[in-house]
Design brief:
6 helices, mainly alpha
Length: 129
């Protein structure tokens, strides 16, 4: 099941990357008790796999350097403005996703499970916020 979620995360990422958007894949789970969920090792592993994927996605967006043609001003300032505008839109989109209830619940559960993957993700998410 974890492998299927990894595949779906990659599929979601690649399908949206073509559109210039970063979309965080969120495993669909119905959870009523966060404490009980934090004790479910299989669920925690699925959520950790998603969190690791989100961390890489956010890191990729934050570490993007000027992708406007670096060989000179061949495309001019309008291309650079378009690049930074698209990047700002993507970062805002990521921020909105981080504020969703399902994403926050996964983060809470991983906090209760004391996941070692949570701190690096929280640091990167803080850079966007």
């Amino acid at each position: 099941s974890t492998q299927m979620h990894k595949f779906l995360a990659s599929l979601t990422e690649n399908a949206n990357r073509i559109k210039g958007k970063t979309v965080l894949y969120v495993p669909l789970e119905t959870i009523k008790d966060n404490e009980a969920a934090a004790l479910n090792k299989e669920l925690v592993q699925r959520f950790e796999a998603a969190l690791i994927h989100w961390t890489r996605q956010v890191k990729d967006v934050l570490s993007e350097k000027d992708q406007v043609d670096s060989s000179g001003d061949s495309e001019g300032p309008l291309a650079e403005i378009a690049f930074w505008s698209a990047r700002a839109t993507d970062l805002n989109n990521i921020l909105q996703q981080l504020e969703r209830d399902d994403v926050k619940q996964i983060v809470r559960i991983l906090g209760l499970a004391k996941s070692v993957y949570l701190e690096p993700f929280e640091k990167l998410a803080g850079l966007i916020r």
